[in-house]
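User: Some background: our group keeps a shared notebook of sequences we're curious about, and every so often someone picks one and asks for a predicted structure to add to the entry. Today it's my turn. The entry only has the sequence so far, pasted here. Could you supply the structure so I can complete it?
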Amino acid sequence: MDTQQVSAPPCAPSPVSGGLTPSAGVVHVTVRHTAAFTVIGNHLSQHRALSLLAIGLAVHIQSLPAGARIGIKRLAERFPESEVRIAAALRELEATGYLRRSRERLPNGRICTRTVSYSQPGAVAPSAVVRPRPRDGRRGTASASVRCG
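Assistant: Of course. Here's the predicted structure to add to the notebook entry:
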């Protein structure tokens, strides 16, 4: 007589909507967000040429409000990665079109870095985007984060 050899008990069914349970792989339990969320395209989250750090950094940047400061030093204070790794990830995002950084001279002579984050590479930035309000409450016109230094 043969004895049945079981190496592991069978898996319990996973709670998937529609009653379908995949035979292997990830099971998604999705809850609809109604506040404080960011929509990220699969082209970014599954980008084969970007490192996981660059993808995560792009998601973080896209979740920030306009005008948030995202300099390398500030990001290194926020995350455990080093300034070198963060700088490399920002370069990856620039090379793939998710980020554009440019240095500009302000009327007072200071040099600033203007950062534009694109949710879709190749998208055209609108010409008149509202700038965050200056501390004196007046309204300006720019399109992204500006870090002066």
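Suggested note for the entry: The first helix runs from residue 42 to 45. The helical segments are 42-45, 52-63, 72-78, 83-95.
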